[in-house]
Design a protein that fits this description.
binds guanosine-5'-monophosphate; globular; 6 helices; 2 domains; 5-stranded antiparallel β-sheet; Phosphorylase Kinase, domain 1; D-amino Acid Aminotransferase, Chain A, domain 1; alpha+beta
Length: 241
């Protein structure tokens, strides 16, 4: 029997973040990632619950990881276990959040004093240093290399993969009448290989309905726009349907 076909025993919880928990399994290099309904924003100064979010984000992430794997982008995803849990490869996470932007919104609009909705002539890639207390500050590749957060070789792989993910997801969502405005990725090493980790969901992507420009992502929670649960369910319907 192959490793992924064996029944995974859920071991000790080794990490609890804002939206997910990680558990050990009986396989040394595999973990269980559990998605919670807890929602936070603005570096966890705003807290709440989005009912069913964990189930939706688990299913959407699984589908998108499968899509990316089918197009040659290696990820930490092994398989979906149940409504809220997926089996993943254990990663040594690079403490950088990679953001790709296709349309101006959120942090970029604020930082540069721009209107949301400007379509960028080419995608923008940003690195943010993963540190909530410092509000995930924007850094560049010189900071990363000078402080040995990562190196030239790994950064080149991270950049290439991030743009590949953008092309694949932009196309996938466009076919479902959604504009992929921006998103955040995290990468990590598994047995010397750089893999895409974390999740890809309405928590980590901005998705606007084509035509109406209705926000179908976590901005509904961040900005108290209402219909938060409905928006997450709508994205799930379009992704799975
Ligand atoms: P911004 O920098 O505009 O706040 O975020 C850009 C994109 O990355 C958005 O799609 C946002 O959801 C995602 N993103 C950036 N930082 C975080 C984070 O710390 N947590 C989550 N869940 N998403 C983030």
């Amino acid at each position: 029997m192959k490793a992924e076909e064996t029944v995974m025993k859920k071991g000790k919880m080794i990490y609890e973040g804002k939206a997910k928990k990680l558990y050990k399994t009986d396989k040394k290099d595999l973990l269980i990632q559990e998605f919670k309904d807890d929602a936070t924003a603005f570096d966890a100064t705003k807290r709440g619950t989005i009912i069913g979010k964990g189930v939706v984000n688990n299913k959407i992430s699984a589908k998108l990881f499968e899509l990316l794997e089918s197009k040659g982008v290696e990820t930490h995803f092994v398989k979906l276990l149940n409504d809220r849990e997926m089996l993943i490869k254990d990663l040594k996470i690079v403490p950088i959040e990679v953001t790709i932007r296709n349309i101006v919104a959120g942090g970029m609009a604020k930082m540069m004093g721009l209107e949301e909705g400007i379509v960028l002539k080419q995608p923008v890639l940003e690195y943010h240093y993963k540190n909530d207390a410092l509000h995930d500050p924007l850094i560049n590749e010189y900071h990363i290399k000078a402080l040995d957060i990562s190196n030239d070789h790994d950064l080149r792989i991270i950049n290439k993969r991030s743009f590949e993910v953008n092309n694949i997801l932009k196309d996938f969502f466009a076919k479902r009448q959604l504009d992929l405005v921006d998103f955040k990725l995290e990468f990590g090493k598994h047995k010397d290989k750089m893999l895409l980790g974390d999740e890809i969901s309405p928590d980590t992507c901005r998705l606007w309905e084509q035509g109406t420009k209705k926000k179908l992502d976590k901005d509904r929670f961040r900005r108290d726009l209402g219909d938060v649960e409905e928006a997450y369910q709508e994205v799930l319907k379009r992704v799975i349907g």
